[in-house]
Amino acid sequence: MSIAQLARVANVPRNSLSQNPESPAVQGHLEKVARVITMASEILGGDTTKAVLWFRYHPLSDFDGVTAEELMAGGHSDAVLAHLDTVRNGGFA
User: Fold this and answer.
1) Longest Cα pair distance anywhere in the chain, in angstroms?
2) pLDDT per residue over 36-91, tens digit each?
3) Whole-model pTM?
4) What letter would DSSP give residue 62?
5) Is position 93 within any domain?
6) Into how many domains does the chain fold?
7) DSSP summary character for residue 93
8) Which phi and psi (to 5°) does residue 12 adopt?
9) How far, CA to CA in Å, does 91 sit from each of 67, 79, 85, 87?
């Protein structure tokens, strides 16, 4: 994933990500991305590659077929985390 793609997904300006990656705001957004990938990996048996593929390409029926990546880019990281929490606790998604 390029810096521009990561900035879009993390919902931060590309320049902030490349010039000031240690800023609390940037780190907060990146932490949400990491939490989503980690939680998806846990659900998928610890397979980070599958988690990244799910994140980028799997349409989520609860969200009109958009992907977790698209939701995150739109600032809806909490919705993605709630979705994963539901799946982790046995809910269907």
Assistant:
1) 41
2) 999 999 999 999 999 999 999 999 988 999 999 999 999 999 999 999 999 998 87
3) 0.83
4) G
5) no
6) 1
7) -
8) -130, 155
9) 18, 15, 8, 5
If one counts every other C-beta atom within 10 angstroms of the C-beta of residue 64, the result is 7
Residues in the chain: 93
Report the half-sphere exposure of 72 (CA within 13 A, side-chain side): 27
Full residue range of the structural domain in which residue 61 is found: 3-88
In a domain, 10, yes or no: yes
3-state SS, residue 63:
helix
**pLDDT tens digit string along 1-21?**
788 888 888 888 888 888 888
Q: How far is the C-alpha of 84 from the C-alpha of 82, rounded, in Å?
A: 5
Alpha helices for 1-93 (secondary structure H): 3-10, 14-19, 24-43, 48-57, 68-73, 77-88
